[in-house]
Amino acid sequence: MNMDQGKTSRHSIKKVKRLKKWLTYLVMSLLAIFFMFPIVFMLMSSIKNNEYQVVTDMSSLRAFLPVGELGFQNYKDVFTSQHFGHVMFNSVFIMITTVVIGLFVNSMIAYALARLRFKGKTFLLSSIISLIIIPFESVAIPLLVMVNHLPWFGGETSWLDSYHVQIIPFIADAFSIFLFYQFFIDIPKDLEEAALIDGASHFGIYWKIVLPLSKPIFATVAILQALNSWNRFMWPLMVTRGTDVRPLTVGIQSYFGQDPRLWGDLMAFASLITIPVLIVFLLFQKWFVRSVASTGIKG
Amino acid sequence: MIGQKQIQPTIPKYRRKESLTAWLFSTPAIILLTLFLLVPFVWAIWLSFTNQRLIPNPNLPTEFVGLRNYIRIFQDDTFKRGLLNNFYFIAVVVPIQTSLALVLAMLINQQLKGMNIFRTIYFGPVVTAMTVVSIVWTLLYNPGEGLINAFLQAISFGKLGPYNWLMDTKLVFPAIMLLSIWQGVGFQMVIYLAGLQEIPHSLYEAAQVDGANSWQQFKNITLPQLRNTTIFVVLSTTIMAFKLFDQVQVMTNGGPQNASMTTMVYVVEMGWGQLKVGYASAISIVFFIIVLFVSLIQRYLTREKGSAA
Fold it and tell me: Would the pLDDT of B308 be above 80?
């Protein structure tokens, strides 16, 4: 650039840059406070044994500080009065089953669509892609009528109040199939052809060649499906009664609906739902971010 | 030539096997999608023309009622209020959430130390269940002694508030919007971040050589390059806004006086609460048509310029 530029102006450019940097950090920190304060508040309130204190502390910064009568009484209450352990098991069980079976079912059809030649493939693929548009919400009510009358093993005539009613409808997912399909179609064919010549079956190729190469997309779909399952609320609200098979989201909502509202207990319940997910998120952060970014791929 | 003659008969057999495997691999997903998405969807259309109830009343057999449900929907003030609220939500939340997501993405996309920490913090609410978020914010919105009231009073030297957020027909919906943005913006931020990282750096370098300032670079490079990302973010946020349910159901159940009613809350109230499955199905179909319309706009807009993939 201009060689005549004096040292002073270069100096001031540097100064402006540094000022800009600190200003950026200031803005970002304020935003960080905005995104963190409810979570910090929840955690702090959950360890305050005195119900009254939880509410009165809100008028000052004490809301965010571990002050006053501290302990784990709220947590104990949630475990004893709300059967927390059992409800937690329900959520974890439903999530793991849905995700694991879903990974197989969705990746296998995607593998067929992406790698195998068969009649009706184009039609099947475009049908799956158009199914992405149908939101679950628009079929929830007819599905409720349907599961109310579906038979199950052992002569049961309704799916209500069961685990399977919360698992089976969510195993196949058109969007997950689409994500798998996009990934599989980019895998080079050479490996597969070599294996075919060696006499490997298609299932063998899927299992031994495609699966190991596709860990990233499996992680992506698993995270998206797990989050969806963990946070699912409307459907379990409609199909479960009592604490037997109810997941955490419905559990905390029904506790929230009881009078009087014990805020300390509620914050402990909320923390117990949030902490495990936050830990998993912190451990696998890159994968979470990648999963969400992949939803932005347009169809 | 001789070799080909020997191979050719084996190809159809091999093809048949491949075809069979393909259908075998596809069957579980096809059955599940048909049974739990396609069938209920088609059935929703059928039910919407009947007066079916969730628990059939033996004295009142289910009848075909023609367009009665649809005619009633558009005379139903609660439904209209719910749909209007969805549009209200879109009008406020979509612009705010989209621009905030872009600002956040641009902030953490800088080559500065500690950006990962900020990304983690901004994204944190996304992994928090909406039911949990709703309950924590209900406490924050506590009338009188709530934290949000205390904060407003502190920064306004006692001039603002205290407000009765969730019981006030004018404030309840904006209050729900605020926590929805808080929970959801990190998701869009990450999508924008992915979009930003795909913009070739050379574009900015060329602009700098031409002497373009930061604003010009933003206006002439960043925004046009993010066109498809923005369309995606805007329209997917719009669709999510039509699905608005969890936070309303937990916090207010649509109240007070339907001030926070939404389409989905009303569908569930009709179909599950009042067992009027036929009527709820008709609302579901209207809801679906709206979502379909938005999705088609999205597909049309992102296909138009035909950029790769």
Answer: no
Q: What is the band of B307 on the pLDDT scale with cuts at 50, 70, 90?
A: very low
The answer for residues whose C-beta is within 8 angstroms of residue B35's C-beta and 6 or more apart is: none
The answer to whether A139 contacts B249, with C-beta atoms less than 8 Å apart, is no
Q: How far apart are the first and last CA of chain B?
A: 41
B residues 153-212 closer than 8 Å to A (CB): 182, 186-187, 190-191, 193-195
B289 touches chain A (CB under 8 A): no
Could you tell me the pTM of the whole model? 0.89
Q: What is the pLDDT of residues A255-285, one digit of tens each?
A: 999 888 899 999 999 999 999 999 999 998 8
Other Cβ atoms less than 10 A from the Cβ of B187: the count is: 23
The structural architecture, per CATH, of the domain A83-294 is Orthogonal Bundle (1.10)
On whether the CB atoms of residues B259 and B172 are closer than 8 A, the answer is yes
**CA nearest to A121, candidates B34, B25, B12, B41:** B25
Average pLDDT value over all residues in chain A: 89
CA distance B27 to chain A (A): 8
Q: Which residue of B has its CA nearest to A262?
A: B139
CA of A30: which chain B residue's CA is closest?
B118
**From CA B263, how far away is CA B178, in angstroms rounded?**
19
* Average of per-residue pLDDT across A143-152: 89
